[in-house]
């Protein structure tokens, strides 16, 4: 049986108190909400904080409403189940409800939070194993070792960003609000991520993700398609988010395509999106965009399925995501 390492848990009731505790804990601290990512990692000794700061009692993190300008505000502590069921989300941002419903299982959706999914640890076949297994191969550079077993000659870690909500938030040009010792700051969701399997977040360790702000679609359309072995529970080995806005004649005015689970960060492919501009999402446009995106997708041997099959699926699922925009 895997057991949690020794640690203390606190339950602050304000953002300021949570941040102060995290600062005081230093490298021994970690925030937690649902715990569906952190606690398994702790059991496998991938993360070993001695002070766990449970933020579920902070009221602001449970916010889920519309601002006066129509922006959707989602507190980092909102559960996936609540996001999926919310009437405003389902009516105005159905792609968010759909993407959240693709995460894990209903039981874990009851626990997992929006903030937790956005800050999900990067994953790798060589990293997401028990301590004894990792010790047997001499660990990896992401934890306790000095080598990346995916690419042994590489100076960096290639663990994969495997969130379902991240590519969607990037495609929607959402913003995230972070609170730290010096106050709050707001950045684009796309700016929250580094292309690095270890240092995959740009936020400072003591900063707390407070909420996500998602602009109204305002006539635009968005979709999300996911590849995984089973129809539930599994992390994506490919996630495709697509967004497009249209002019009065139904022609694409602007578009974004974002690939998840093919790298250490959400990979935007503007070259593929550019193939859609000025058209009406006809088959030729979709084929060209899918071809370009597939060429730019470069998965490695660090998740489920073979590299070649995963690369072959990139243009297939990009096209499916774009087809969904015709009727979204």
Task: Describe this entry's structure for a reader.
This protein is of the alpha+beta class. Among the domains are: about 60-120 and about 160-215, Uridine Diphospho-n-acetylenolpyruvylglucosamine Reductase, domain 3 (2-Layer Sandwich); about 220-325, 2-Layer Sandwich (Enolase-like, domain 1), CATH 3.30.390. The chain has 12 helices and 12 strands. Strand 6 (about 175-180) and strand 7 form a beta hairpin. Helix 11 runs antiparallel to helix 12. The protein is globular and about 60 Å long. The mean pLDDT is about 95.
Distance between the termini: 46 Å
Please name the CATH architecture of one domain. 2-Layer Sandwich
Shape: globular
Order of helices and strands, N to C?
Answer: EHEHEEEHHHHHHHEEEEEEEHHH
The CATH class of one domain is identified as Alpha Beta
Poorly predicted parts: none
Q: Which key phrases capture this entry?
A:
328 residues; alpha+beta; Uridine Diphospho-n-acetylenolpyruvylglucosamine Reductase, domain 3; Enolase-like, domain 1; 5-stranded antiparallel sheet; 4-stranded antiparallel sheet; 12 strands; 30% helix; globular
């Amino acid at each position: 049986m895997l057991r949690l390492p020794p640690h203390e848990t606190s339950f602050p009731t304000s953002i300021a108190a949570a941040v102060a505790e995290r600062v005081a804990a230093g490298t021994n601290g970690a925030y937690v909400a649902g715990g569906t990512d952190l606690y398994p990692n702790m059991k496998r000794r991938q993360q070993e904080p001695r002070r766990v700061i449970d933020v579920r009692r902070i009221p602001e993190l449970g916010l889920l409403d519309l601002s006066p300008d129509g922006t959707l505000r989602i507190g980092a502590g909102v559960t996936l189940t609540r996001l999926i069921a919310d009437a405003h989300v389902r009516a105005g941002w159905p792609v968010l409800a759909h993407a959240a419903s693709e995460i894990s299982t209903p039981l874990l959706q009851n626990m997992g939070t929006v903030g937790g999914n956005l800050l999900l640890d990067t994953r790798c076949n060589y990293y997401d194993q028990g301590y004894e297994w990792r010790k047997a191969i001499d660990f990896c550079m992401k934890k306790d070792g000095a080598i990346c077993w995916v690419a042994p000659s590489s100076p960096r870690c290639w663990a994969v960003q495997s969130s379902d909500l991240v590519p969607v938030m990037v495609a929607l040009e959402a913003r995230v609000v972070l609170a730290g010792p010096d106050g709050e700051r707001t950045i684009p969701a796309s700016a929250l991520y580094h292309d690095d399997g270890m240092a995959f977040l740009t936020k400072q360790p003591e900063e707390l993700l407070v909420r996500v702000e998602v602009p109204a679609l305002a006539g635009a359309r968005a979709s999300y398609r996911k590849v995984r072995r089973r129809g539930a529970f599994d992390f994506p080995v490919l996630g495709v988010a697509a967004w497009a806005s249209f002019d009065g004649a139904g022609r694409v005015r602007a578009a974004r395509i974002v690939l998840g689970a093919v790298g250490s960060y959400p990979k935007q492919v503007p070259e593929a999106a550019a193939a859609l501009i000025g058209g009406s999402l006809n088959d030729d446009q979709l084929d060209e965009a899918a071809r370009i995106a597939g060429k730019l997708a470069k998965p490695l041997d660090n998740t489920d399925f073979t590299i070649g099959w995963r690369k072959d699926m990139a243009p297939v699922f990009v096209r499916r995501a774009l087809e969904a925009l015709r009727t979204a």
